[in-house]
Amino acid sequence: MNTIATRKEGKKINVTVQGDFNLRTKKMILSRLNPAINSLTINLIECERIDSEGVIFLHRWLQKGKTLRLIEPPPIFFEILEILNLEEAWDLEKIIAE
Amino acid sequence: MDAKFQISADEQFISPVCDFTYSWSVNCGLSRGDAYRFSVAVSELITDVILFAFPGDSKKDFEIEFYHTPYNVEVVVCELGEPFDPDRHVYDTERALQEGDFDGAGFLLMKSFSDNFTFINKGKEGKEFRLVKNVQIHDIDQLLQQSAEQREAARKDEEDQDTYVNIEDFTVERTKPTDAEDISKLFYRTYGYSYNKEDLYLPKKIEESVLAKDKLGIIARKDDGEAIGYFSVIPKDDSNIAEVAEAVVSPKYRRNGVMSSMMEQLIKIAQSRQLTMLIGEAVTVHPVSQKVNNKFGYTTTALVLASSVNVKYKGFDEEYPQPVSMALDFLPINFPKTKKAVYLPGKFDEMILETYDELGLDVESKKSGSYHLADKSDIDLKIDYSSSSSLIIVKRYGKDFLSVLSDMVDSLEKKSPETILLDLPLENRATPEQYLNITSFNFIYSGLLPQFHFDTDFLRLQKVYSAIDFSIIEIYSEFGKKIKSFIADEYHSNTKRRQED
Q1: What value does the mean pLDDT take over residues B357-382?
Q2: What gap in Å lies between CA B357 and CA B343, rounded to an integer?
Q3: What is the pLDDT of residue B143?
C-alpha cells in the first residue's frame, strides 16, 4: 500500500513516499499542497514504483517555475523520462539531491 | 487462467494489483526487471481505465485476468465503461512540453514496458485491453557445460552413426518430475535445437509442468533405464478432451513399437480419466505426423490455414514459403453414446455430416425451428501473439451478435493478423441463421471440432489474410484431402469475389 508522510516548513514541503508513486499518491500529495508552497522535496528512497501519473505531476510542478528536489528516485523514473522525451526539459543535476 | 479479480475503479487498488502482477510475473518466469516494468505497464492500464472509462467517482467494477504460458504472461482487462479508442490518444512530445498535454503518455508506456498491447472493441460487450510480456528463456539445461558448436558437432556425429537398434524389451510409464532431464535430452538428441517448443530443452520447465499436472506424459525406457521415448497430451481447460503436445522416439530405437506402446498407454490413461477425445495438431509441410495419427485411428476433421509463422523445418533446405497450415486430427475415446442434435449451416451440412460419419459419431441434423436470442452475446477471445492469430469462440448468441463480432474483427484487423478463427456452437439452434448473417465477413470453412469447447461440438471458420498456395499443403488421409479441396475451392472463390468487389 502506498502512503506518504509530509512536513511543511514555511513555503517548503518535504514528502516521503512509501510504496508506489501513482495516481493515488499524486492525489494525496496534491491534497497537502497550497498555493503558497513553492518548493517540493520528495524522498523516494522507499518508493518501489513510479508511473506516468507521478512523472507528469512532477513535470507540471516544474513547469510552474517552482523548485523540485528528488531523493533517490527508482531507476524506472529515468526510463519514463527517456520514453516520454522529457530528459532535456529537466535539469536533473539540480533536481536529484545528493 | 491463473487468476481473475473483479475490482472497483478506485485508485486505491492500483498498487495491490501491481504488486500481485510483479510477484505472479516472477513466478511465471519473467526476470525481476521485466516483471517490474510489466507491473508499471499494468499500473498505466488500470489508471487509464479509472480515469477514462469511469471518469468522476463512479467506482464501478471491472475485471482483470491473468494468464501465462511457458512463453509469455498476459494481463487482460475487461470493462464496460465509457467508450474510448487508444488509437486516438497518441503521445506528442511537443504538445506535452509546450501545452502540458500528456494525452497518450500512458499508452506509450504500456507499449514500451510490454511486448504486445492489444485493444479490442467489443461494442456493447465493452472493451478489452491485453498486455503481454514474453518470457526470455535462456540456458539452465545441463548441456550448457559445452559450447553450442561442440554440442551440435557431437549430435551430428551421433546422427551419422544412427542405425536402427532392435531392443527386446522396454517399459512405458507415467512421467515423474525426475524424468525432466531425460526428456530434455531426448528432444535434443532427436531434433538438435530445432524443435519449436523451447521449454522442452529446459528440465526445470518440464519438471514444473509435471508437478503442476499441466500435461499427461508417458516415458519409455529400456531395461537399463535409458529414456527412448516420450509422449504427452495437455488436457484442454474448457472441455474434457486432451491435445497431443509432444511425441518423440530416440532415432536409433525407432521401429521397435515404442510410439505404439506409448500411445496405447496414453489412451488407457485418457479413458480412465473419462476424456472423450484426443486431438493431434499436425503440420502440413510434410505428412509424417498425420501418418502417425492416422495409424492410430485419428480422423482429420479440420484444416487451419496459416496457423503458425514461417519456419525452417528440419529436412527442408529453405524456409517454408508461407505460414504453416495445420491439420486437426481427432480420436474419439469415450464419446457419449447418446445421439446428439446438431444445427448445421446449409452451406456446410454435407461436409460436416460426412466428417461425423468418418469419426464414427452418430448425430441428428435438425432444423433450427424457432429460438430465442439472449439480450447479450457471450463471446471469448484468445490471441496467439507468436503466430498473429486470434480465436473467437461464440458461447451464446445475443441480439448484439452481429455488432459485437463486427467490432471485434475490426479491432483485430488493426493488428495485421495472419488469421482470425471463429468457432460457432453446432448444438445451438441459432447457428444456421446466425451464420447467414455473417457471410459478409468472408470467413471460410475450416472444419468440425467435436467436443472442443464446453464438451460440445463446434464449427470452425477461418479468415486468412495471407496468400495461400494449396499445392504445398500436404495432407495424408483421403478424407483430409477432401476437406482441403473443399476449403481451397471456397478460398479461391472468396478471393475472386473480394477482388471483384
Answers
A1: 90
A2: 16
A3: 41
Interface of A with B in 8-37 (CB under 8 A): 19-20, 22-24, 27
**ipTM of the complex, rounded to two decimals:** 0.93
> What 8-state DSSP symbol labels residue B473?
-
B2-44 pLDDT, tens digit each:
899 999 988 899 999 999 999 999 988 888 889 999 999 999 9
Interface test with A, best of B109, B112, B114, B117 (most A CBs within 10 A): B109
Put simply, the answer to whether A53 touches B39 (Cβ < 8 Å) is no
Given B44, B51, B96, which is nearest A51 (Cβ)?
Answer: B44
What are the start-end ranges of the H helices in B273-366?
Answer: 288-295, 349-359
Instruction: State percent of chain B over pLDDT 70.
Output: 91
Output Rg (C-alpha) for chain B, integer angstroms: 24
**pLDDT-derived band at B321, boundaries 50, 70, 90:** confident
List CB contacts (< 8 A) between A65 and chain B: none
Nearest to B388 by CA among B414, B423, B424, B407: B414
Q: How far is A72 from B113, CA to CA, in rounded Å?
A: 22
* Distance to chain B for A4, nearest Cα, Å: 13
Which ranges of B341-454 does DSSP label H, i.e. alpha helix?
349-359, 401-413, 431-437
Q: Give the residue-averaged pLDDT of B443-452.
A: 96
- Spatial CA neighbour of A30 closest among B97, B51, B95, A21: A21
Q: Give yes or no for a contact between B49 and B28, defined as CB atoms under 8 angstroms apart.
A: no
Q: Helices then strands (H, E): number in chain B?
A: 13, 19
Q: Rounded distance, CA B384 to CA B323, Å?
A: 14
Q: Is the pLDDT of residue B429 over 80?
A: yes
pLDDT band at A1 (very low <50, low <70, confident <90, very high): low
Instruction: Report the pLDDT value the prediction gives residue B260, as an integer from 0 to 100.
Output: 85
Interval B253-276 mean pLDDT: 86
**β-bridge mates for residue B448, sequence order:** B459
Question: Across the interface, do B96 and A53 touch by the CB < 8 Å criterion?
Answer: no
Which set of grid coordinates corresponds to residue A87?
530528459
B13 neighbors B42 (Cβ within 8 angstroms): no
Task: Give the pLDDT score at B139.
Answer: 43
H/E element, B363: strand B363-365
